[in-house]
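pinned: reference chain
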Amino acid sequence: MTPSLLLFFSLCAVLTFLLSWVVIFPWLRHGRRQDNQLMAVNVQIFGERIAELEADKQAGLIDDGHYKAQTIELKRQLLDAQTVAETHTPVGIKGRIIVLVWIPILVAIAYLTTADRTPVFTLWAAQDSVGQVADDLLTGKLDTPPEWAAKNSSALISAMQTNVHQHANDANRWMRLSELFMMLDAKPQALEALARANRLEPDNQEIAITYAQTSFFANEGKLDANARAVLNQVLSVSPNHEGALMMMVMGEARAGNYPMAKAWIAKLRSSIVSRSGDHSEALASLDNLSQNIAKQEQMASQGVKITVGIEPSLLAQMKVDDSLFVSVAEQSGGAPYAVKRLAASDIKAGAITVTLSDADAMMPNRTLSMGRDAGVALVVNARISHSGNAMSQSGDLAANPVVLKKNDQQVSLMISQIIP
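pinned: its structure tokens
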């Protein structure tokens, strides 16, 4: 029996017991005792009235006919009271069994008719058909699913997700689930699965590096605070971990922190040289990386720093997955000379500064320095896109363009309007 079915029938049993207790317990405890007590009171009162009538007759206060009529009336009232008491006697064993049987039946009918349970039944079917295959994939017993299971990919994915949540403390299962999400190009889900694996085993360096790498590429080459913390944790334990050092180089270079990137390269070079053997190829690759970073640094020094803010009244218009585009283009229009795309959420904490240079050119023959040297009239633009589209659309948030003069090294923009 699957856990879902077990939970359902357990709840039915508990509800049946509670309802049966509420309905039947008062009958068992109070029904007959209350009726018997009422009859005893009625009989006592009847006896007292008969005694009063006999006393009145002997005292000559009433005649024999009146005495007989009153006695007959009292007997009739006592008989009526006894009849009413008998109609309220406790329910018999058959009635109780009927209640016990019908309560779970009614609960089941209500469960099946008040909501669409198709997804639940689909999940149960997936568990029955490919549940074992999913477990074998998540535990490393299988590297690839059998052909018959791969054909039913949706059922296999559902079964794997359910399996991981049933073993929520198994970091390796979360790792393998992240691989599945990456195969499906579901980067946010893969990142969340890796984050869970890292929280479960923070000392597992393989998980940590995989998480940092996935975060880096999912965030378009940016090391966020979580990824940096993970890498710093790895380096605090293994200062010469080459994977972590390379990630720090890439992250700092991408963020424009070129001196820091060079420092990490020097540390990585020292680690490689200290190892025995021939590492000339690795060192040559590292030299090429150093040259590329130096070139990027030179181009950035010729670029322009752009500070972008947003009117507080427009913050409510932003969505979680909005994109921020900052670009330099001709005033007359056309493809930009330099452009960067960032997460719009970065601007919520306050104004951010972006550097645009030749490194951000869309085409090698259309760079920012070429445009400035040619004396082209350039403007700086900033726009928050709801769709992530590079072309502006109705509803996007935008700043008024600012003219970029030839010698300007710094520009400020304020996103203050909604594109109609």
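why pinned: The longest helix spans residues 3-58. Residues 30-35 have pLDDT under 50 and may be disordered.
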